[in-house]
Amino acid sequence: MLDLDLLDERHVSIVKEAITEDRIGFIVQSIHANDDPAQVLYGECLPYLIDKDGMEHADVVFVPALEALGEAPVLDRHMLKLVMDALELNSLSVLGYSLSSHSVSDTGSWAHIRDQIAARPELSSRLVLQFTGIPAFADVALAINSLSEAKDLGCRIAIDDHRSWTGIICALTRKHRYSTTCENGYIVM
Q1: pTM of the entire structure?
Q2: Of 56, 103, 44, which is closest to residue 77 (Cα–Cα)?
Q3: Does the pLDDT value for residue 120 go beyond 80?
Q4: What is the pLDDT of residue 134?
């Protein structure tokens, strides 16, 4: 996996196989409030993959390939299930996951994400959908609609890289009237 080219399609089959064999998991990294670093706002869930030899690979090894190949929604759907399962197990936790732009700007991919959230509405208020370091959406109106749907379902939205997201942030804050800035430069709505 480490020696594959970024655009090698084998990344996709490796991840799909790891999902099927339950070899994808996550670690939690705390996201703190900007104005009070002692306050943890939520735990960001960072995926890892365990290969067939038992070696653990961090997200930086396989996620960029999935994003470059347009296959990140496969991982996003699985990770969202894992995150929501964890929320179900701990009623005090607030967890977030960084969705790819493909999962929000493609209607079919978004439908899978939306349906997972809608199926467990009691968890949505403790779910943060995070967007960081991803390119601008091809269809901004669709992205705004998808993120607005997530807000309507009760989720929080965390956005990094404010400059390229200015239109989306403005549209969402007009509708939902809430934002705060976090330690890592995220705007959480």
Answers
A1: 0.84
A2: 103
A3: yes
A4: 47
* Residue with the two structure tokens 């070899």: 23
Question: Around Cβ 149, how many Cβ atoms within 10 Å?
Answer: 17
Angle at 37 between CA 36 and CA 39, to 5 degrees: 70
**Of 16-20, 29-33, 64-68, 69-73, highest mean pLDDT:** 16-20
Per-residue model confidence (pLDDT) at position 184: 53
Phi first, then psi, for residue 42 (nearest 5°) are: -170, 170
Q: How far apart are CA 33 and CA 157, in angstroms?
A: 15
- How far is the C-alpha of 147 from the C-alpha of 132, rounded, in Å? 14
CA distance 109 to 141: 16
87: tokens are 């929320």
Mean pLDDT of 33-45: 89
CA angle 141, 142, 147 (to 5 degrees): 100
Which residue is associated with the tokens 């970024």? 6
C-alpha–C-alpha distance, residues 186 and 133, integer Å: 11
Q: Are 158 and 31 in contact (CB under 8 A)?
A: yes
Tell me the pLDDT tens digit for each residue of 132-148: 654 555 566 777 788 88
**Separation of alpha carbons 40 and 63, rounded Å:** 26
Residue 96 pLDDT exceeds 60: yes
Q: Which two tokens stand for residue 174?
A: 């007009």
